[in-house]
């Protein structure tokens, strides 16, 4: 596919982030599938805690982040598992976005854990995306025991590397899908739209 742009949002602020590394691998696979890509590293954005009384344009780099997500045809969301859910930096980034950034957009999910499978992280992200009327790719990438999953800047297991690469390829493959029907929750969600 040509003219497909995939943006990945890294919800980890760690310098040596396994989430970031995995997203970079997914983006590499998306590039091999013909897409242009960009990593939106939240360490590079000034994003204050979301305040519904503050306009997005007055909230640091929130408007820039939202604009870059709107420009993407598909979005990958990656997060470490914190207390059974996703990270607060990613939550803040998503709170500054709304239907304009996610409605009918293809979204792929990736979660990393230092221990067991980060299933609840993926479930929580899927719920948020569904509320924003995004189309979430059925294939998702979960990386448990992250400290043992990588060695010398590479995946230890080829099966896990393949799963992450598949997420990147699917983001390109389904970037132009027209979801139907919409999410049943979306008409109930006003959230932070326009903020």
TrEMBL record:
Cross-referenced SUPFAM superfamilies: Flavoproteins (SSF52218)
One Gene Ontology term of the molecular function aspect: FMN binding
Gene3D superfamilies: 3.40.50.360
Required co-factors: [4Fe-4S] cluster
One Gene Ontology CC term in the entry: cytosol
Residue ranges that the Swiss-Prot or TrEMBL entry lists as coiled coil: none
Domain NADPH-dependent FMN reductase-like residues, every copy: 5-147
Pfam family, one: FMN_red
Family: Belongs to the SsuE family. Isf subfamily.
This protein's name: NADPH-dependent FMN reductase
Taxonomic source organism: Natronorubrum sulfidifaciens JCM 14089
């Amino acid at each position: 596919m040509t003219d497909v742009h995939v943006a990945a949002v890294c919800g980890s602020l760690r310098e040596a982030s396994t989430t970031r590394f995995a997203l970079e691998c997914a983006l590499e696979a998306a590039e091999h599938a013909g897409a242009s890509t960009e990593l939106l590293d939240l360490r590079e954005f000034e994003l204050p805690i979301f305040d519904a009384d503050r306009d997005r344009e007055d909230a640091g780099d929130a408007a820039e982040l939202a604009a870059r997500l709107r420009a993407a045809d598909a979005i990958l969301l990656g997060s470490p598992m914190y207390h059974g859910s996703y990270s607060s930096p990613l939550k803040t980034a998503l709170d500054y976005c709304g239907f304009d950034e996610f409605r009918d957009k293809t979204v792929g999910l990736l979660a990393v854990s230092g221990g067991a499978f980060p299933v609840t992280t993926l479930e929580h992200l899927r719920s948020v995306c569904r509320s924003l009327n995004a189309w979430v790719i059925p294939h998702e990438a979960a990386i448990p025991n992250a400290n043992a999953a990588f060695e010398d800047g590479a995946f230890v297991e080829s099966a896990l590397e393949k799963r992450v690469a598949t997420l990147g390829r699917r983001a390109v493959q389904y970037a132009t899908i027209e979801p139907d029907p919409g999410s049943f929750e979306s008409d109930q969600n006003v959230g932070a739209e326009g903020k």
